[in-house]
Fold this sequence. Notes:
The complex is a heterodimer.
Chain A: E1 4-5, E2 10-14, E3 19-25, E4 32-38, E5 45-51, E6 56-59, E7 62-67, E8 72-77, E9 86-93, E10 102-103, E11 107-112
Chain B: E1 5-7, E2 10-13, E3 19-24, E4 31-37, E5 43-50, E6 53-56, E7 65-68, E8 75-79, E9 88-95, E10 105-106, E11 110-114
Parallel strand pairs in B: 2-11
Antiparallel strand pairs in B: 1-3, 3-8, 4-5, 4-9, 5-6, 7-8, 9-10, 9-11
Amino acid sequence: DQQVKQNSPSLSVQEGRISILNCDYTNSMFDYFLWYKKYPAEGPTFLISISSIKDKNEDGRFTVFLNKSAKHLSLHIVPSQPGDSAVYFCAASDTNAGNMLTFGGGTRLMVKP
Amino acid sequence: NAGVMQNPRHLVRRRGQEARLRCSPMKGHSHVYWYRQLPEEGLKFMVYLQKENIIDESGMPKERFSAEFPKEGPSILRIQQVVRGDSAAYFCASSPVQVGHTEAFFGQGTRLTVV
């Protein structure tokens, strides 16, 4: 029973263009959502988060959008850079039950120069 | 301010041996989480600990796996009588609060290989 899904295992984008990574969830108790970036042989690095009371959060080139009614969130990276090439994980938590994260399966982003 | 420290980075064990994975949380963080990542999969929650307490171990296998976070020293994830299926990357994360909106910070992981 996958509560958080990233349906695209990989995404290839040209440098300078927009990267859009998608994530769907099923548990309506989730109220906090995060995106992590992961390079091979390293731990996940926190990128950006959003609370369920918001529908958008922006930090530099990264913007996360949340559509609660559709149980869908997305991460936009613009402009994309070759250094953004990594695996991106969407994660969700029910913060009233502790901060355990439920992760999606990840999307491998490749940004071509 | 050092980040989350895990050691060893790589651990090779023969089937039937014990594996001990250590995690020191970030300074000021009293909540520790262990996650496991199998090849080509996302991270799966295993156990959540505070100092001297297991808060939630719903993701941890009932047998052979145990975790602790003593008053002094790092958190330890212990796997007894390892099997090939235990081969994975084990990540520890820490956060400063129990509830509320806060991100968890991850260590670099311990890659366990069972031969």
